[in-house]
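Justification of resources, computational component.

The compute hours requested in this renewal are based largely on the per-chain cost of generating structure records like the one below. Each record pairs the submitted sequence with a full structure-token output. That output is archived, and it is also reused by downstream analysis tasks.
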Amino acid sequence: MVALAASRNTPRLGEAPHPSQFSLGMATATTVFLGGMVCQNAGGFAVPASATAGLSRVIGIADENTTNNNANGDVLVPLSHGVYRF
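The structure output for this chain reads:
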């Protein structure tokens, strides 16, 4: 899987029956892009989805470009979950 290097249009298909937006603290030195898939690393922090051992499932789609240059969890990334078209 090639890493996302910019925002992308990721249309959502339909509406979820329950509120589907949430936030998660990001791993340090991490950037996620609007519309990109986000996973949770072993420490419980948000990272961009990739074919990396330990990142077994996508937990959401980033709702905005977000960068954390501080400590783990200092910056929250807003996420949504549902069914998306890739």
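Residues 31 and 39 are 12 Å apart (CA to CA). The beta strands are 21-25, 30-32, 37-40, 46-48, 58-62, 66-68, 76-80.
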